[in-house]
Structure formats: C-alpha cells, structure tokens
C-alpha cells in the first residue's frame, strides 16, 4: 500500500499545520505540526516513517504561512498543489461541510485533492527563494526603523541613547541588505536583465523591482497580467446582495501584502510625478473616481505593466500608456 498514491490536505496557520492523510483504503490519518523549519522536517520524517513516499498534497494559498512548508515538501519529492482558497470553500459547500475547523479544512483539502487532481505547483528557483528571504527581512527591519522613529517623539531623555543606537544599527543593516539584494541580482544575468526591465518603468526603483522579482521570479508563472495583479490582491472585488443592493468595487487584498506595500509609493510617484501617470489619474478622475480608488488602480496598473515588460522582454514605453490626443 505504501507505493499507492496518498492524498494529503494541509491547513496552514501562523503557528501550526493540521495534516490529514487520505489513504488508498479510504481511511484518514491526522496529525499536527509546528509551522516552523523544525516542524516541516518532522512532517517529512513522519510521512517517510509511515512509508508515504508517493503523495499528492493540497495546500491553500495563504501567502507567507504556506510557502516554506510547500517548498520543503516539494524538495522532498512530493507532488504539491497550491490552490485558491475560493476553490476550497466552494468544494466544501458542494460537499455539505458546514463546520469550519482546521481539522475539517485539512480533511476537505485531502478530499479535494483526490477528486480534483489539481495541477502540480513548481517551487521557486533557489535564487528566487534567497531574494524573497532578503526582501522580507528588509521589510521587517524597515518596520522596526519606523517604530523606533515614532518612539523618538515621546521618548524620555534616558531612553534616547538606546533608541539612537538601535536606529544607527538598523540603518547600517538596511544598507547592507540592499547591497546584498543588488549583488544577488547582479550576479545572475537573467535576474539582472529582468530587474533592468522593471526599473525602466517610470515610478519603479531598485527596492520595488527587488520585491517584484522576488515574487515573479525567473519564469513566467502567471498566464496573464490580470492573474499577477490578482496574486498581489490588487484586482477589484464587487459586493452584491440580491438584485437591488450593490456595493462599490473594492481592492480584494487577498494576495501578497508585500507586493501591495511595495507598489504603494511607486503608484504615488507615478500619479503625481510622471506624465503617463498623471494622464492615467486625470482620466479616472474625469470618470468620477476618487483618490484612493485612483491610487489602487495605479498600483494594479503598475503590476500589470511590470508583468508586461517581463513577458515581452521590451523596456517600458510611456507613449503606449498616454491617451492619444484628439
């Protein structure tokens, strides 16, 4: 039986993993693991210890919580599928699963895996993983730097030496990380070329291009520009109830917050400092759109343009995005 295919569902949370193994004989085996590097290794050891060498594993796309365990299982030789949470929710409803617990979700994913056989996921290249790790670390230290700056506004005199020393360390470490990120992308010709393509977009600089590269990577992982915008959580979501109550479309915010965060300031710059961005802003404003909606639309536009230049291999051409004069 160990050579037959097992179907495994994993519900990921910040601190733990709920694992449900659907065996070839239809029985289930469940276990919990810490969502840590050690916990991921223990999961692989547990699977191997039960002679589960052939398995198709389904995990919902939950951003940073699922990526490390998905990569660990992929590296261990398992088939891994990362599915849209909306698909899992629809499947649970179709199966009449009303209770929502982590254990139930894991079992639902195992059954989804058996019935739907979703496409296999391909883990990022090691270079992409390294870049993403550096980008995430840079964002974390940037947050710390902002927090310490805010503390200076109300700090007592006795606290200032400690805060100032920490700020100096953070600033030095941020510069070191920025150099490490640049060196990493410079050392790979393909990555360097893709970074230059991204930086040809007016409004996008080195920091933003690094974040975009960390998530787009070296391969065309997305079928089209809208799919990448959805991955970033930048596509609009319409709220409707019945036929008479309709809400305005809002940014879904269902994707990677790191990408939305990275595109916020470039969108501000593009809509105020570049000719093509101002034209885009004015066109939406003429249609009655307000500031936040316009900014969100520009973030989405930048994500789609970034995908476009990488897909085509052609640098950004602002004239293609300016309205034609009447």
From TrEMBL:
Residues 196-280 form the Transposase IS116/IS110/IS902 C-terminal domain. It comes from the Bacteria. Residues 8-152 form the Transposase IS110-like N-terminal domain. InterPro entries: Transp_IS110-like_N, Transpos_IS110, Transposase_20. GO terms for biological process: DNA transposition. GO terms for molecular function: DNA binding; transposase activity. NCBIfam families: transpos_IS110. This is Transposase, IS116/IS110/IS902 family. It comes from Escherichia coli 4.0967.
């Amino acid at each position: 039986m160990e050579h037959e295919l097992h179907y495994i569902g994993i519900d990921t949370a910040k601190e733990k993993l709920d694992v449900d193994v659907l065996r070839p004989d239809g029985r289930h085996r469940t276990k919990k693991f810490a969502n840590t590097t050690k916990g991921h290794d223990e999961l692989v050891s547990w699977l191997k210890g039960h002679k589960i060498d052939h398995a198709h594993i389904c995990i919902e796309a939950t951003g940073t919580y699922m990526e490390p365990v998905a990569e660990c299982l992929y590296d261990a030789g398992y088939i891994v599928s990362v599915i849209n949470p909306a698909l899992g929710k629809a499947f649970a409803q179709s199966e009449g699963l009303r209770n929502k617990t982590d254990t139930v979700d894991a079992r639902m994913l195992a059954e989804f895996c058996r019935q739907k056989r979703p496409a296999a996921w391909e883990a990022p290249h090691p270079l992409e993983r390294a870049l993403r790790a550096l980008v995430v670390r840079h964002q974390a230290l940037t947050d710390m730097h902002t927090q310490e700056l805010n503390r200076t506004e109300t700090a007592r005199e006795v606290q200032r030496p400690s805060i100032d020393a920490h700020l100096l360390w953070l600033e030095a470490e941020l510069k070191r990380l920025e150099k490490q990120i640049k060196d990493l992308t410079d050392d790979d010709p393909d990555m360097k070329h893709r970074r230059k393509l991204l930086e040809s977009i007016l409004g996008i600089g080195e920091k933003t291009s690094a974040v975009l590269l960390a998530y787009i990577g070296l391969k065309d992982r997305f079928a089209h520009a809208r799919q990448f915008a959805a991955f970033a959580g930048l596509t609009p979501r319409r709220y409707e109830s019945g036929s008479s109550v309709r809400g305005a479309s809002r940014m879904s915010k269902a994707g990677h917050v790191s990408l939305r965060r990275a595109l916020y300031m470039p969108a501000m710059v593009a809509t105020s400092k570049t000719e093509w961005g101002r034209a885009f802003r004015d066109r939406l404003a003429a249609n009655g759109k307000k500031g936040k909606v316009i900014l969100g639309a520009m973030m989405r536009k930048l994500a789609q343009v970034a995908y476009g230049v990488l897909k085509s291999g052609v640098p950004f051409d602002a004239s293609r995005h300016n309205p034609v004069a009447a």
